[in-house]
Specification:
The complex is a heterodimer of chains A (512) and B (427).
Chain A lengths: L11 H8 L25 H9 L7 H9 L5 H10 L1 H9 L7 H7 L9 H6 L2 H22 L3 H13 L8 H12 L4 H8 L3 H6 L13 H10 L9 H10 L3 E3 L5 E3 L9 E3 L2 E3 L11 H13 L1 H15 L6 H13 L4 H8 L2 H5 L8 H12 L15 H7 L17 H4 L3 H19 L7 H4 L5 H13 L5 H13 L4 H14 L1 H4 L2
Antiparallel strand pairs in A: 1-2, 3-4
Helix pairs in contact in A: 4-5, 6-8, 8-20, 10-11, 13-14, 16-17, 17-18, 20-23, 21-23, 23-27, 25-26, 25-27, 26-27
Chain B lengths: L11 H4 L3 H7 L27 E7 L5 H4 L6 H6 L17 E2 L5 E2 L7 H5 L3 E8 L8 H10 L11 H7 L12 E3 L15 E3 L14 H9 L3 H17 L19 H15 L5 E6 L14 H20 L8 E7 L19 E6 L7 E3 L20 E2 H11 L6 H4 L14
Parallel strand pairs in B: 1-7, 1-8, 4-10, 4-11, 5-6, 5-7
Antiparallel strand pairs in B: 2-3, 4-9, 8-9
Helix pairs in contact in B: 10-11
The chains are: A mainly alpha (512), B alpha/beta (427).
Chain lengths: 512, 427
């Protein structure tokens, strides 16, 4: 943290020179009264994040791993990593399919909406889907994130949900299960292939309408720009248009299933990224479908795709400004394994990368889920309580509702986007702590003795430190919480409630 | 009083502070030192109230300029758009356009903008866009427009943010200089702006539970500066908003805002302006402009989006620009790019280049269409498919910054760019 300058002179100009006006856009490393003489270096926002976000000293590399690959520390998660050690814990998380997940599975029985078949989902009238089914599906997704032991898979599903974003649609659940969850820790090529056959995706990006009589470029463009190679590959508008022509015929039937229609396909000559497809006679069956698959195969093998994914995943897990060395290591993992997501994650989640990772601001979904996990508050999804619409409503109120980002780029993963929104976070925490207490009634979190084994303020803070911060709370926060408890009047339960609330509102808890 | 203390900040007391004493104490927004590219800043020092508040409305998705400021005088317009053209003003068709001059028209959906246009307060922009990039990506184009420098990813603060950074506060000590009314976050236009918050609805912006304000203050005093500043500005703003009754706000001159996000947003902005709390910049986003299929600009999807835009902006004009604040507000309506001149096979349009926009204000030389119309015949189009960009948005923005916002620091706000003036302002 820079010290505030105590040597301000009295003129405004002097103030401007020494203190600078820009808090954020760019800063110089050394403050000087003479800018011309100053040794200055441009700092990007990302670098600034690192300098100022490093405040929290989290020494334990095992816990750093847990913070990054889960949606928040819990007693159980800390115990698990300590029992298994760094590598075995990571491998267990990577091998999510082999993990028993009884608690989550049992809970999901309360949400049959999440398991609806394609036919059953399609049979629901849109009016009853909206506001009822969709809310329960979103709550189920929040509950999964809280309860599932397969935390890395949940984190990856969240990542892919932004990468292959689709805004609210009745058929999105199918995409969520069959594309995002199914391939979250699988192979990226399989995931793209599944996405290219997703009714929800093809409908959302207008591909279902595109045919030889009327080409629609929307999906072709986003498939290149957002899903695979990014503009870094250097494709042209002509490439996008020709790719859209190659994709004509990729559509869906009225049962929400993928369908290729050769009679809609444009069999004329086209050149995409240097691949030329000569004009040919119109065909039937899957004739012409190979054009788009060949193109996407080329794109998926291209280093631009490897680097784009590597950079985005490094930003997700490690830092806003990954180094060339980090990017190239992860991109190499992608290329040598032909798209194995686990291989990329192993290259990303190294002890060194985690140790040097600057603290990252939680997005609201992450904040709410981690608060539920740390505090142990559980919400009855069926009991209505005034002022407590639902746990998902809390997240949506912070501008981060599940499936509610409208454009195909997905929610931003940039701290500067989310930083202008602190106070609503505190309200979300009090919703959970104060109203959640009413909901849960006998909820163990508000059993004061669970948070204050010896009944003293320092005992309360020690318990908060253990349960919420994995034992790595800063001494400054410890002193602040102690002071607050000592200032407070009221019952022990009330003091515990407020202390937990303050801990969840702390800047330390906003980062991971 | 310590201005950085949120609980004594944001009320009448701070108005009595001299600007200097405020600035000397309000270091939170000024961080580490002077950036190297920031060498010769002249703090904009227009007298209080003599500088416009800037309201930017971003039409996200690439709004089809040929439906918003439609060139009925260009025969190629109708050739390229057999199913989605706005009918000529002199036709007998349902939903015919409203002539702006002998060549351009507004669609019927934007009818509510006509009074402002007739009063000379509304300037329509056509064939406007970004000359220095040819990107057809929404996300690149939006970013470039918002940071004020295309194709340079090292610029990551917004042009409006840099205007605020290089201006003395209109109202010394104001807790809220910029507001983003959209969703949960701050988009590029305002990234890096001092005392700027994302507030989806000002009428319920408050701390619901504050058993111990002291610890909140203590905890955030040493936090990462954007988080700390956001926390402090939020507490002070919540304190300020307690004194404003948004729900009972009554617009002037019988203005009626739509009950849409945009309408409610502009209504809140109007309330804040009249309360004179020192707000200087607002960003509102409007959605639904990426009309690849079933565009329906006459009756249907895009017509509804345009009606929302027109009715909201029209109400704002009626409410604000016929009263005492009329010469203190400028509104800009923009989009990241326009769309193809010809419709696609799905009664929509794909991503294009030049588009349309609007500037609204009593200090604007409006009542006309500003354009260097490039024509829609195939050989006149860019790459044979798009309206050429003939006016760079930065020229429009820069002229407003200089003439209406009283800020001379154009090289900081629009790095490496020499803007030209089109004479769009009255002063």
């Amino acid at each position: 943290m820079p010290e505030r300058s105590q040597s301000l002179t009295s003129t405004r100009r002097a103030f401007l020179r020494t203190a600078g006006l820009a808090g954020t856009g760019a800063v110089a490393l050394s403050a000087s009264a003479s800018p011309a003489a100053a040794q200055t270096r441009r700092l990007s926002y990302a670098q600034l994040t690192e300098r100022l976000g490093q405040r929290v000293e989290w020494a334990d590399v095992d816990l750093r791993l847990v913070r990054r690959i889960t949606l928040g520390l819990t007693d159980a998660e800390v115990a698990r990593v300590k029992a298994l050690g760094f590598t075995a814990y990571l491998e267990e998380q990577l091998d999510a399919a082999s993990m028993a997940d009884d608690v989550c599975d049992t809970r999901m029985a309360f949400y049959p909406e999440f398991a609806l078949s394609r036919e059953a989902l399609r049979a629901i009238p849109q009016d009853s889907f909206n506001g009822t089914y969709d809310q329960l599906i979103k709550r189920a997704i929040v509950e999964r994130a809280v309860l599932s032991r397969r935390q890395l898979k949940e984190r990856m599903t969240e990542f892919w949900s932004d990468h292959f974003n689709i805004s609210n649609r009745q058929d999105r659940l199918l995409d969520y299960r069959e594309v995002l969850q199914a391939h979250a820790l699988g192979n990226f090529r399989d995931m793209v292939a599944a996405s290219m056959r997703s009714c929800s995706m093809l409908s959302y990006l207008d591909q279902v309408w595109s045919n030889k009589w009327g080409v629609n470029e929307n999906y072709a463009r986003e498939l290149l720009e957002l899903h695979t190679c990014s503009p870094a590959l250097g494709y042209s508008q002509a490439d996008v248009h020709a790719f859209a022509r190659a994709l004509t015929g990729w559509t869906v039937d009225d049962q929400w299933r993928f369908q290729y229609r050769a009679d809609w396909h444009d069999f004329g000559q086209k050149t995409v990224l240097g691949l030329t497809f000569p004009a040919r006679a119109e065909g039937t069956g899957s004739a012409g479908m190979d054009e788009a698959t060949q193109i996407i195969d080329l794109v998926l093998s291209h280093p631009a795709t490897a680097r784009f994914l590597a950079t985005k995943l490094l930003r997700w897990f490690i830092r806003p400004d990954p180094t060339e060395k980090q990017i190239s290591s992860v991109a190499t993992a992608y290329l040598t394994t032909r798209g194995d997501i686990k291989a990329m994650l192993r290259a990303i989640l190294t002890p060194y990368n985690l140790t040097t990772a600057p603290a990252k601001l939680k997005r609201p979904f992450h904040l709410q889920v981690s608060a539920l996990r740390a505090s142990g508050v559980r919400i009855d999804p069926f009991r209505a309580v005034p002022g407590w619409e639902s746990i998902h409503g809390n997240i949506a109120g912070l501008g981060h509702g599940v499936f509610e980002w409208q454009t195909p780029d997905g929610y931003p993963d940039r701290p500067e986007f989310w930083a202008g929104n602190m106070m609503p976070r505190w309200n979300a925490m009090s919703q959970m702590i104060v109203n959640g207490q009413n909901v849960a009634g006998q909820n163990p979190v508000w059993n004061a003795s669970a948070w204050s084994t010896d009944g003293t303020p320092s005992g309360m803070v020690a318990e908060i430190n253990r349960k919420i911060f994995g034992g790595e709370m800063t001494s400054a926060l410890r002193d602040q919480l102690l002071g607050s408890i000592q200032r407070a009047s009221g019952t022990t339960a009330n003091k515990v409630q407020n202390a937990v609330y303050h801990a969840l509102c702390s800047p330390e808890f906003q980062f991971y | 009083m310590r201005p950085s203390d949120p609980h004594t900040h944001g009320c009448d007391e701070f108005r009595t502070l001299s600007r200097r004493s405020f600035m000397r104490q309000s270091l939170p927004f000024a961080a580490l030192g002077l950036p190297s590219w920031f060498p010769h800043v002249e703090l904009a020092t227009a007298e209080n109230g003599a500088r416009d508040v800037l309201v930017t409305i971003f039409l996200r998705g690439g709004a089809d300029g040929l439906s918003m400021v439609a060139p009925f005088g260009d025969a190629s317009y109708y050739d390229g758009r057999p199913t989605i053209a706005i009918p000529r003003p002199d036709s007998r068709a349902q939903g015919r356009g409203l002539a702006l001059d002998d060549f351009f028209m507004l669609p019927a959906a934007l009818q509510a903008l006509v009074p402002a246009y007739r009063a000379g307060n509304l300037l329509a922009l056509q064939a406007v866009g970004q000359m220095a990039t040819k990107t057809r990506s929404h996300f690149e184009a939006e970013r470039y427009l918002e940071v004020g420098k295309p194709e340079d990813l090292s610029v990551d603060s917004g042009w409006v943010a840099r205007h605020l950074q290089t201006s003395a506060p209109l109202l010394p000590g104001a807790p809220l200089r910029g507001i983003a009314l959209a969703g949960g976050g701050i988009r590029y236009t305002l990234v890096g702006a001092p005392n700027t918050l994302a507030i989806p609805s000002p009428d319920n912006f408050r701390v619901n539970y504050l058993p111990d304000a002291t610890i909140i203050d203590q905890m955030y005093a040493t936090a990462w500066s954007p988080v700390r500043d956001s926390a402090r500005a939020a507490l002070a703003t919540a304190e300020l908003f307690k004194r404003l009754a948004f729900s009972t706000y009554k617009p002037d001159n019988g203005a009626v805002y739509p009950t849409t996000d945009l309408g409610r947003g502009l209504r809140s902005i109007a309330a804040l302006l009249k309360a004179e709390v020192g707000l200087e910049a607002a960003l509102l986003d409007a959605w639904g402009w990426d009309t690849h299929a079933n565009q329906e600009p006459v009756e249907g999807a895009m017509a509804q989006s345009m009606k929302d835009l027109g009715d909201s902006v029209g109400a704002f004009w009626t409410d604000i620009m016929q009263g005492p604040l009329r010469k203190q507000v400028t509104v800009i309506v923009m989009s990241e790019f326009g769309r193809n001149a010809r419709e696609n096979g799905t009664r929509g349009t794909d991503h294009g280049r030049g588009g349309a926009g609007f500037v609204l204000g009593a200090g604007i030389r409006g009542g006309r269409v500003l354009t260097q119309w490039p024509g829609l015949a195939r050989e006149q189009l860019e790459d044979g498919q798009d309206v050429r960009v003939t006016i760079d948005y930065r020229d429009i923005f820069a002229e407003l910054v200089k003439r209406r916002l009283g800020n001379p620091n154009l090289s900081t706000i629009f790095p490496d760019y020499t803007p030209r003036e089109y004479g769009i302002t009255l002063v």
